[in-house]
């Protein structure tokens, strides 16, 4: 059964999976969605005996139907290898009455590695299949983690260049150091004066600029995206929910078909959408618990049915979730609008022009799978401290937002189904915020790398390679630009 991909803003725009991956975003500004969600028609017993790579093949082959078995297995084997510091790829840790699904064992120690270590292979395979002769230019806006993970994935991949834009004052010190020290002949990093939404909107604008596209084509280039608007990022993210369920089943923690809840610290709505797709494939998931930080636009949306980005953008200690325009929500809106691209387009146009839209009662009813809440800065910090004190387990600020919201959820609903919390970053990536949450008096005066060593001492977890690497690394990128200079910067980098 072939799965095709359709734009959320034009039902008549239909492409194969490989074309959708190549293009990233549809020409009409819409996102590609699968024409149907395939069923996970394999017994759990069988899935639970598989390796991560084998589960990945079972899930991804059902979505990316124009990739051959050989192509897909090559992509999976190349992505999920020794770059990860554990054979399980995504291990589960039981703590604080839940299972933390550690998605940060890849090369840049955040969950973005789960998809961005395979995207370059999917993309270059898709280019070959479609006879693309141009070099592919990956343009990416990052709230801190995508940029590094994308550059690590695309570093020196033949036929590709990558340009990353990040908010100058909107990322953690370790995140910034990781990016500006990035190696590779084809990698470029630009800080912008603005926030993540500015960067993301700037990138989308370049994508939709026909004149620029033409100039690029003349020079032998074409754009694609490594942001989670690319379906090639979403599909690999479904895998770890299936794998987590299968692991729990295998270890006797779950009975046949027992439902679980999934808790996801959310920004651009990519990770939680992948969990929703897993549920729609038939994985026994009950609630999808959407956790926000103080930028709680999604909480308000789930509560009121109105999405309203007209508010102050708040810089928090979970910067990868500092987002007011959650791009992937559009895929959910399209679906609950009955796959009605016109209706979806109206709402997205309203979002672009007035900064808000409201869904109908009929659509609201279909959000019953979701529960939204948020954690403020104090709650997040005290969750880190509490879980460390009670369990000896150190979690990062983003994961703490999820753990904090999960506590609110169980207190309110008394729903004690087993829960998987997506643990999206290593505490080493947000060392300062994490250590100050644990003991502000003791740690506030210490330097970033001193704190790294302290974290290792209190957690008993060895300092990851990703951190050792940047201790002494040389800064290789120092371009800073205004948001409206972004197109010019891109042209200059490409020499056109
Ligand atoms: C990107 C990111 C998130 C948010 O994920 P979305 O898919 O954008 O919702 C959460 N935590 C960390 C650490 C991230 O890097």
Strand content: 15-25%
What is the name of the CATH architecture of the domain at 92-109 and 232-464?
A: 3-Layer(aba) Sandwich
Distance between the termini: 43 Å
| CA radius of gyration | 21 Å
> What is the oligomeric state here?
single chain
* Nearest-integer average pLDDT: 96
CATH topology of the domain at 92-109 and 232-464: Rossmann fold
Structure description:
- The chain is an alpha/beta fold and 496 residues long.
- 46% of the residues lie in helices and 17% in strands.
- The protein has 22 helices and 16 strands.
- The protein has helices at residues 17-23, 44-47, 52-63, 69-79, 112-116, 119-129, 145-154, 173-180, 196-207, 210-218, 231-250, 270-281, 297-304, 329-336, 341-354, 361-365, 377-391, 397-413, 431-443, 448-459, 465-471, 486-494; strands at 5-7, 10-15, 32-34, 92-95, 98-102, 135-141, 160-167, 187-193, 221-225, 260-265, 285-292, 306-308, 356-358, 370-374, 419-423, 479-482.
- The strands form 4 sheets. It has a 6-stranded mixed beta sheet with strand order 4-5-15-10-11-14, sandwiched between helices.
- Strand 6 (135-141), helix 7 and strand 7 form a beta-alpha-beta unit.
- Helix 4 packs antiparallel against helix 6 (119-129) and helix 11 packs across helix 12.
- The protein is globular.
- The mean pLDDT is 96.
- Bound molecules: pyridoxal-5'-phosphate (PLP).
- Pyridoxal-5'-phosphate (PLP) binds at residues 110-112, 145, 228, 265-271, 320-321, 398, 424-425.
């Amino acid at each position: 059964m072939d799965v095709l991909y359709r734009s959320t803003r034009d039902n008549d725009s239909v492409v194969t999976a490989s074309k959708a991956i190549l293009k990233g975003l549809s020409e009409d500004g819409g996102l590609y969605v699968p024409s149907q969600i395939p069923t996970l028609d394999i017994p759990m017993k069988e899935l639970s005996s598989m390796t991560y790579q084998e589960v990945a093949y079972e899930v991804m082959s059902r979505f990316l139907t124009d990739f051959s078995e050989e192509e897909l297995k090559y992509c999976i084997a190349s992505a999920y290898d020794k770059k990860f510091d554990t054979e399980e790829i995504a291990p589960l840790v039981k703590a604080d009455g839940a299972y933390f699904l550690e998605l940060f064992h890849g090369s840049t120690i955040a969950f973005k590695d789960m998809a961005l270590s395979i995207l370059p292979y999917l993309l270059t395979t898709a280019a070959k299949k479609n006879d693309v002769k141009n070099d592919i230019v990956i343009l990416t806006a990052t709230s801190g983690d995508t940029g590094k993970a994308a550059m690590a994935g695309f570093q020196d991949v033949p036929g590709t260049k990558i340009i990353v834009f990040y908010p100058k004052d909107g990322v953690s010190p370790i995140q910034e150091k990781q990016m500006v020290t990035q190696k590779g002949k084809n990698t470029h990093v630009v800080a912008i004066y603005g926030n993540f939404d500015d960067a993301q909107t700037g990138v989308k604008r370049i994508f939709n600029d026909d004149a620029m596209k033409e100039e690029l084509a003349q020079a032998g280039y074409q754009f694609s995206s490594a942001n989670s608007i690319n379906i090639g990022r979403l599909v690999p993210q479904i895998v770890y929910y299936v794998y987590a369920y299968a692991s729990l089943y295998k270890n006797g923690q779950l009975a046949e078909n027992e439902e679980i809840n999934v808790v996801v610290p959310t920004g651009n709505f990519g990770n939680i959408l992948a969990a929703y797709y897993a549920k729609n494939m038939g994985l026994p998931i009950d609630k999808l618990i959407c956790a926000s930080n103080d930028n709680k636009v999604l909480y308000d949306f789930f509560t009121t049915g109105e999405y309203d980005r007209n508010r102050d953008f708040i810089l928090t200690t979970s910067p990868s979730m500092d987002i007011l325009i959650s791009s992937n929500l559009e895929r959910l809106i399209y679906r609950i609008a009955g796959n009605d691209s016109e209706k979806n387009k109206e709402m997205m146009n309203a979002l672009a022009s007035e900064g808000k839209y409201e869904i109908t009662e009929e659509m609201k009813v279909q959000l019953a799978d979701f529960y939204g809440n948020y954690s403020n800065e104090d709650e997040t910090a005290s969750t880190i401290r509490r879980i460390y004190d009670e369990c000896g387990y150190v979690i990062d600020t983003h994961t703490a937002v999820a753990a904090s919201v999960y506590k609110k959820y169980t207190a309110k609903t008394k729903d004690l189904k087993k829960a998987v919390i997506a643990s999206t970053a290593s505490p080493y990536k947000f060392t300062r915020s994490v250590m100050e949450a644990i003991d502000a008096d003791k740690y506030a005066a210490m330097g970033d790398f001193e704190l790294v060593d302290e974290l290792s001492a209190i957690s008993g977890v060895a300092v990851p390679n990703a951190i050792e690497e940047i201790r002494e690394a040389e800064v290789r990128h120092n371009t800073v630009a205004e948001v409206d200079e972004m197109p010019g910067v891109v042209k200059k980098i490409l020499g056109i």
